[in-house]
Amino acid sequence: MRAIWALLVTIIFTLIFGLSGIFISLFESKKGHALGHCARLWAKYILFFTGVKYSIKGLSGLDLNSNYIFAGNHTSVFDIPLAFATLPFWLVPIAKVELRSFFILGWVMDTAGHIWVDRKILKVPLISRICKEFINGYAQVHFIIP
């Protein structure tokens, strides 16, 4: 029963915050800004309404003025919501290029500024792009979920 509730909550809040973020992003000047804020709210609402209890350790050791790359491992379906809800950084997700072909998902992820990875080719262009985004101040954190 709890799994059904979690699925229902996730669908409802994904629709609410996803559609809101898409609409607002049509009028924004900074790519992904609106969707980033909506993603944080989406994550917090999902965690709250599904009753997920979590604690955060180690944030005091992070410099808020530095850049980081965090990697999740998908040991939980809540990896992504936990990252968006708890990390005090602007997150720029890195996703596999296959997700780009999903109907609306790919367009939304493009609009949000996701970085696409084609795991079949050499990763040098990806590393170069991440470095440029850090240098130009666009990205503070990259969140990788393999």
Task: Walk me through the structure.
- It is a single chain.
- 47% of the residues lie in helices and 12% in strands.
- The protein has 5 helices and 4 strands.
- The chain has a 4-stranded parallel β-sheet with strand order 1-4-2-3, with helices on one face.
- Strand 2, helix 4 (105-111) and strand 3 form a beta-alpha-beta unit.
- Helix 1 runs antiparallel to helix 2 and helix 2 (33-49) packs across helix 3.
- The longest helix has 24 residues, at 2-25.
Rg, rounded, reads 16 Å
Unreliable stretches (pLDDT < 50, length at least 5) are none
Strand order of the largest sheet: 1-4-2-3
Q: Strand tally, please?
A: 4
Classify the beta-strand content into a percent band. Answer: 5-15%
Number of helices: 5
Number of structural domains: 1
Give the overall average pLDDT.
Answer: 82
Structural class: alpha/beta
Shape: globular
> Biggest sheet, open or closed, and with what strands and sense?
4 strands, parallel
Percentage of helical residues?
Answer: 40-55%
How do the helices and strands follow one another from N- to C-terminus? HHEHEHEHE
End-to-end distance: 29 Å
